[in-house]
């Protein structure tokens, strides 16, 4: 605030002539000449002198003005320390004019901080290949606070993408003032685009593998079973049964490989789902033989229901594979101070030395296993932001604890 601004503040109360005299006297007391440029710190000192030397409304105005100047000084310091480009604007007919910019704005977009003040914002930040009118709508498209992606040309001529956050407030004088911050998200957008392309290629790969391998495998498996129905020679039947078993193993490997290929993608939309319902549905999708399932929880969680069911299915298959077709599987909730669920069986369990290894791709103690089942379980858990660990169950079998 300069001398003219100070005089105008006091003139609202005592008139221009007395206001000029009050301000000049205070400046003289501080040894500041009338034509000297003053900053906000000087202005605060002048208000302090005026408050001390006067009474009534003049002293009250000086006190309030000093508080406002101190607040503005703190705000300017905060603005200057923001690492992202930031701008303060005032509006004339909804047109944003620069009131101040921080150093990051000046460096990023190539404008002198002093020269930018009073300039139409859209003349400084015209979007590449677009009408500068869009600068105005950046502020007015939404009332109050807004957040949107914008593209702007930097001082080096590079076009970059920013997340523009803005807010409009009403000052004491009923003058609207806007605050905007530009956060550079160019690299993030590039990574998102790369991830999108990778997922598209992954989908294409999964589709090709699923179609081109599963179809001939189904044909081979079907023909083998037809032959088994016609062949009576014991030796030939034994050989065909080995071929059929190999086909089934190939199908399991194919299913698990395709499942793993899909794990690179984040979970889908999460909803509140019942652990009991998902656990029961998963049991119906697994060949459980004479095994039994007990569910001891009615808790609900936020999850991708389809992938959660897949987690349960893999843990059930693991239990039946290692604990036997007559095992008992228990799904339960943890203690009162933990969030999650557990799946336990009454089989031989997993030795402490192997508990860290079981989640590795391809690790299996069963010659017929693919070694992917528990790796898939861990991938699904981590995709939800959960953890999974293995320990010993109360019945001496394996217990898998999923926690968040």
UniProtKB/TrEMBL annotation:
Residue ranges constituting the PAS domain according to the UniProt record: 71-127
InterPro entries documented for this protein: HATPase_C_sf, HATPase_dom, His_kinase_dom, HisK_dim/P_dom, HisK_dim/P_sf, PAS, PAS-assoc_C, PAS-like_dom_sf
Molecular functions per Gene Ontology: phosphorelay sensor kinase activity
EC assignment: 2.7.13.3
Domain of life: Archaea
Domain PAC: residue ranges: 146-197
Swiss-Prot/TrEMBL keywords: Kinase, Phosphoprotein, Transferase, Two-component regulatory system
Catalyzed reaction equations: ATP + protein L-histidine = ADP + protein N-phospho-L-histidine
Domain named Histidine kinase: residues: 208-404
NCBIfam families (UniProt xref): sensory_box (TIGR00229)
Protein name: histidine kinase
Record organism: Haloarcula hispanica N601
Lineage, highest ranks first: Archaea, Methanobacteriati, Methanobacteriota, Stenosarchaea group, Halobacteria
């Amino acid at each position: 605030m300069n001398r003219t601004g100070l005089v105008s503040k006091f003139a609202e109360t005592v008139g221009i002539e007395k206001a000029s005299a009050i301000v000049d006297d205070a400046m003289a007391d501080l040894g500041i000449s009338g034509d000297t440029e003053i900053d906000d710190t000087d202005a605060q000192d002048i208000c302090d002198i005026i408050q001390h030397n006067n009474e009534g409304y003049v002293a009250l105005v000086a006190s309030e003005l000093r508080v406002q100047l101190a607040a503005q000084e703190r705000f300017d310091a905060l603005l200057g320390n923001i690492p992202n480009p930031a701008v303060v604007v005032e509006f004339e007919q909804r047109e944003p004019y620069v009131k101040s910019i921080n150093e990051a704005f000046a460096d990023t977009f190539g404008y002198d901080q002093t020269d930018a003040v009073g300039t139409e914002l859209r003349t400084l930040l015209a979007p590449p290949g677009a009408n500068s009118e869009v600068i105005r709508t950046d502020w007015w498209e939404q009332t109050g606070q807004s957040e949107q992606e914008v593209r702007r040309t930097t001082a080096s001529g590079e076009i970059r993408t920013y997340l523009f956050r803005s807010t409009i407030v009403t000052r004491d004088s009923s003058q609207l003032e806007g605050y905007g911050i530009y956060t550079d998200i160019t690299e993030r957008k590039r990574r998102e685009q790369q991830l999108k392309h990778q997922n598209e290629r992954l989908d294409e790969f999964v589709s090709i593998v699923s179609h081109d391998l599963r179809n001939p495998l189904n044909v081979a498996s079907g023909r083998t079973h037809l032959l088994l129905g016609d062949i009576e020679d014991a030796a030939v039947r034994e050989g065909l049964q080995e071929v059929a078993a190999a086909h089934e193993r190939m199908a399991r490997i194919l299913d698990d490989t395709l499942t793993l290929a899909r794990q690179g993608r984040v979970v889908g939309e999460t909803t509140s789902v019942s652990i009991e319902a998902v656990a029961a549905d998963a049991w119906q999708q697994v060949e459980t033989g004479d095994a039994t399932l007990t569910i001891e929880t009615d808790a609900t969680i936020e999850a991708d229901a389809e992938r959660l069911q897949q987690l349960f299915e893999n843990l059930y298959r693991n239990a039946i594979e290692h604990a036997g077709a007559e095992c008992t599987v228990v799904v339960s909730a943890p203690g009162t101070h933990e969030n999650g669920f557990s799946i336990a069986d009454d089989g031989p369990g997993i030795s402490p030395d192997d508990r860290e290894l079981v989640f590795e791709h391809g690790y299996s103690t069963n010659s017929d296993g693919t070694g992917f089942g528990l790796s898939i379980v861990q991938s699904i858990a981590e995709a939800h932001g959960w953890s999974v660990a293995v320990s010993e169950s109360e019945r001496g079998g394996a217990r898998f604890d999923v926690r968040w």
